[in-house]
Design goal:
The protein is an alpha+beta fold. The protein has one domain: HIT family, subunit A, CATH 3.30.428. The protein is about 35% helix and about 15% strand. It has four helices and five strands; from the N terminus they run E-E-E-H-E-E-H-H-H. Strands 1-2-3-5-4 form a five-stranded antiparallel β-sheet, sandwiched between helices. A hairpin with a 3-residue loop joins strand 1 and strand 2.
């Protein structure tokens, strides 16, 4: 199980660790990972499953209250060996969606989405945008108004 540097850890329970995503320049992008080294929900003990729902709800409430994102995506994507089951908690701020629409490279996705491209996008497109631009790019866009460090501090206080 990969070691999460302490300064990224926001909250811990008996069965789960909530941390800011290590390689994300998007303030408030969190990971909720199981302490047990399992890759499927059905492999978790009942007590871990019982903690999961309330912890996801608390995480959502905290992000929506603190940061007021336009949207909040919670999903499971990873399947890399050695990483236990985990969930991504991705805030989509107005300014993130604005950057998405301004980036011509992502207009190719319009073929696959709404017939009215400027009005609607979907979670897959915005998640791809966040991953490529805020997690993988060596020079990610600057978040207006808040740094990752400030987000970590606010989140840690809210979980306490």
């Amino acid at each position: 199980m990969p070691l999460i540097p302490q300064h990224f850890i926001l909250h811990e329970t008996e069965h789960w660790i909530v941390n800011h995503r290590l390689n994300s320049a998007l303030p408030g992008y969190m990971m909720l990972g199981a302490r047990a080294n399992v890759s499927a929900l059905h492999e978790l003990p009942e007590s871990a499953l019982a903690e999961l729902g309330p912890l996801l709800a608390k995480t959502q409430r905290i992000v929506e209250t603190l940061f007021k994102p336009k949207r909040l995506y919670i999903g499971r994507y990873g399947h890399v060996p050695g990483h236990p089951i985990h969930f991504h908690v991705i805030p989509i701020y107005d300014w993130v969606e604005d950057l998405f629409w301004q980036d011509a490279r992502y207009r190719v996705l319009e073929t696959f989405s709404s017939p009215h491209p400027e009005s609607i996008t979907d979670g897959a497109e915005l998640t791809l945008f966040v991953w490529r631009e805020f997690c993988e790019r060596p020079d990610p866009p600057t978040a207006p108004g808040m740094t990752v460090e400030a987000a970590i501090s606010h989140l840690r206080e809210a979980f306490a």
